[in-house]
Automatic annotation (TrEMBL), chain A:
This is Peroxiredoxin family protein. The keyword Coiled coil applies. The keyword Repressor does not apply. The lineage of its organism: Archaea, Methanobacteriati, Methanobacteriota, Stenosarchaea group, Halobacteria. Pfam families: DrsE_2. InterPro entries: DsrE2-like, DsrEFH-like. Keywords: Coiled coil. Residues 9-36 form a coiled coil.
Amino acid sequence: MSSDADAPVDAGADSVEDLRAQVQALQEEVSDLREATDDDGQKSMTIIATKGTLDMAYPPLILASTAAAFGWDVVVFHTFWGLDILHEEKSKNLKLSAVGNPSMPMPNAVAALPFMDNVATSMMEKKIKENGTATIEELIETSLDMGVDLQACQMTIELMGYDEAEFYDGVTTGVGAATALQHMADADVQLMI
Amino acid sequence: MSTYEPTETLDVKGLSCPMPVVKTRGAVDDLDSGEILQVVSTDSGSMSDLKGWADSTDGVAMLEQEEAEEDGDAVFRHFIQKE
């Protein structure tokens, strides 16, 4: 009677020597794979932040600081208008758009008036203060303190005409899409905001 | 009242997400093994958030969570042990 267990492992393996060599090769392969995937169980997250309005600045920073509290390795790659979040001066003056915002209790024709973005922003800032919600500046300082890598895309820094010195201390500059992708490829969580 | 005797107390009253979790992390880092941190929060989301954080983070255990009313406000107390 023949069974799978009796079947030769490899048609070419006709001696004990060959089988020993095969087992050894497999053991080495398993050991290499274990080494390559051994990350101490630490989770990792990459967020791509592309928006520079007050409402869109919050989610990346809240998730990043919380993930850091979980002990995760976190990178937030800021590009295009997302750069304004890391820009020391601009980050304190992020605006909320009144136009095209269904949560605003006014028609778009009214929302499009020149001062309405400021009105909407002031309303939101008042709510943030009353609710005890952290400011963007506080969340940036907290994230940096906790070891979050806040990256500013070099190409868009130049495109927007910003100077590296205008960003918060501790922000990583001189990085591009390849750096972001490298971290994303190994990350457990990847988000584009 | 809780039966646990905290080593340290972290007051995050008035702060909302993500600050209770973020500040708890920092306070736990300052503890020695076996010590207990009491976190006092007014954020109702802290009940779920701090439990979730403690369950997913190595080296900490959520011993007890309780809700009480103080001066007409809901106050949430969390007892976290560093392992």
